[in-house]
UniProtKB/TrEMBL annotation:
<keyword id="KW-0732">Signal</keyword>
<dbReference type="InterPro" id="IPR038266">
    <property type="entry name" value="NapC/NirT_cytc_sf"/>
</dbReference>
<dbReference type="InterPro" id="IPR036280">
    <property type="entry name" value="Multihaem_cyt_sf"/>
</dbReference>
<keyword id="KW-0479">Metal-binding</keyword>
<dbReference type="GO" id="GO:0030313">
    <property type="term" value="C:cell envelope"/>
</dbReference>
<keyword id="KW-0408">Iron</keyword>
<dbReference type="GO" id="GO:0046872">
    <property type="term" value="F:metal ion binding"/>
</dbReference>
<keyword id="KW-0813">Transport</keyword>
<dbReference type="Pfam" id="PF14537">
    <property type="entry name" value="Cytochrom_c3_2"/>
</dbReference>
<feature type="domain" description="Cytochrome c">
    <location>
        <begin position="337"/>
        <end position="450"/>
    </location>
</feature>
<dbReference type="InterPro" id="IPR051829">
    <property type="entry name" value="Multiheme_Cytochr_ET"/>
</dbReference>
<dbReference type="GO" id="GO:0020037">
    <property type="term" value="F:heme binding"/>
</dbReference>
<protein>
    <recommendedName>
        <fullName>Cytochrome c domain-containing protein</fullName>
    </recommendedName>
</protein>
<keyword id="KW-0249">Electron transport</keyword>
<dbReference type="InterPro" id="IPR012286">
    <property type="entry name" value="Tetrahaem_cytochrome"/>
</dbReference>
<dbReference type="InterPro" id="IPR009056">
    <property type="entry name" value="Cyt_c-like_dom"/>
</dbReference>
<keyword id="KW-0349">Heme</keyword>
């Protein structure tokens, strides 16, 4: 073979061998990633970020994996997504290996990074080690658990909503993971305007957050509106990722869900949870005014006890007659009125009975009320007689018998209290059964103690 042909052959062989290497190099460049229509906005946010000098493959592939066959097959999967998708978004969640972040060239997880107090916002600092040491059941936090893509304006960021979900889900206000001082320093700054900009003299004690904390004043006194929402699981959204409806049956298994989705980096928190907000509002009084449970944590508990006819000692479970057809308060409380404080309320109305039943039922409320009131008066008189019997035998019978009698008296009075405060006509049958049980207690006390007087 002539020297010329050898040279041509050598050049051709080199060209053939270098093409894969050249393509491998070209396909590892950020510009190649950004050439796909579904990647353009991600490329743009990357190019505007602090990581613009870090190639895509340095983060999206673990150290040592960037130039392997495995990496190329992963790239092919993105190519198939590109060819098959007419849309402009990537449906598959990006996976970032922690090792890509903590290499010696980037953010080595040494003591300095682990314990460094980082200013997250103007008033909130963050320490990595604290969050790795204390996680929620089933979780294994990864860098991308907090540092992820949540906005089209940034390639990735730390979303405050993620912080709020972990800190406030399943916690009482200012308790556990939701304690204020975990993120906020207790301030010594005076809260009264008269102390603004002046030196506080020694004999004047200004009100500060610290003085309020020391005095045991609850944070809810001023900040109850700051946390809203419960972060509930949206089980119907399971079907966005899972074909089988059986997947929803396991949705409330916290440990399993966190292992598969958080530790496994398969989903974003808000693919499953509703968000929790943590911010001030303009009208703080309206927040409290519209939520009765803030001031009345168990409002209408006696009415509910009467309507559900809960099982008690000596009284079987006896729900109100209309429970089976799911009749609620608004079916009967149709008449507009005002309470003792002048607040508008809805009262029970005889006309509501007639509207559903017959005209004859219009008198039913009065009849039931009269019957219950008569029986209740008799029971109260019997309670007074039982209490008198207990007083008369003090020192004449054993303390154990007196204590037993008092327990029976207390239980009977509690039954009458349910009827009075729950309005017995909500469930006439159950109310009469409560009165009978209470009367049995009172009469047993009277008979027992009078025999030994």
């Amino acid at each position: 073979m002539s020297p010329k042909k050898k040279a041509v052959l050598f050049f051709f062989v080199v060209l053939v061998l270098s093409l894969p290497l050249g393509f491998e190099y070209y396909s590892s460049q950020p510009g190649f990633c950004g050439s796909c229509h579904i990647m353009k906005k991600y490329y743009r946010t990357w190019n505007d970020s602090k990581h613009r000098n870090i190639a895509c493959v340095d983060c999206h592939y673990a150290p040592g994996e960037q130039h392997t066959i495995t990496a190329k097959f992963k790239g092919l999967s993105q190519l198939f997504s590109y060819l098959a998708s007419p849309g402009s978004t990537v449906r598959k969640r990006a996976y970032i290996d922690d090792q890509s972040c903590v290499t010696s060239k980037c953010h080595p997880m040494d003591e300095k990074l682990a314990t460094k107090k980082i200013l997250f916002t103007e008033n909130v600092s963050y320490v990595h080690k604290t969050h790795f040491d204390k996680t929620i059941e089933g979780q294994k936090l990864h860098c991308a658990t907090c540092h992820n893509h949540t906005s089209s304006k940034a390639h990735f960021n730390v979303s405050e909503e993620t912080c709020f979900l972990c800190h406030f889900k399943n916690t009482e206000f200012n308790e556990g993971r939701g304690r204020c001082y975990l993120c906020h320093e207790v301030s010594d700054k005076p809260l009264q305007k008269q102390f603004e900009g002046i030196k506080v003299v020694s004999d004047v004690k200004p009100i500060t957050h610290r003085s309020l904390e020391e005095a045991g004043v609850s944070c809810t006194s001023c900040h109850i509106e700051l946390v809203r929402g419960t972060g509930e699981i949206k089980t119907e959204d399971c079907l966005n990722c899972h074909e089988e409806e059986e997947a929803t049956a396991k949705a409330l298994d916290k440990k399993l869900m966190h292992e598969k989705h958080v530790a496994g980096q398969q989903a974003d928190c808000f693919n499953c949870h509703e968000s929790i907000t943590h911010k001030e509002v303009d009208d703080i009084l309206e927040v409290v005014r519209s939520q009765c449970k803030f001031c009345h944590p168990d409002h209408h508990m006696y009415q509910k006890a009467i309507l559900t006819g809960e099982k008690l000692e000596g009284v079987p479970k006896t729900p109100a007659l209309m429970t089976e057809v799911k009749t609620n308060c608004l079916a009967c409380h149709t008449k507009k009125g005002v309470d003792a404080q002048g607040q508008p309320i809805l009262r029970g109305s005889p006309e509501a009975c007639a509207a559903c039943h017959t005209k004859e039922h219009k008198n039913m409320l009065k009849e039931w009320q009269a019957a219950i009131s008569k029986e209740l008066t008799t029971a109260k008189n019997s309670a007074a007689e039982a209490e008198s019997a207990i007083s008369k035998v003090k020192g004449k019978v054993s303390k154990e018998r007196v204590d037993e009698a008092r327990d029976m008296l207390t239980k009977g009075k509690h039954y009458l209290r349910i009827i009075e405060l729950g309005h017995g006509l909500h469930n006439k049958k159950y109310s009469i059964m409560l009165i009978d049980a209470a009367m049995n207690n009172f009469e047993d006390i009277i008979d027992d103690l009078n025999d030994n007087e």
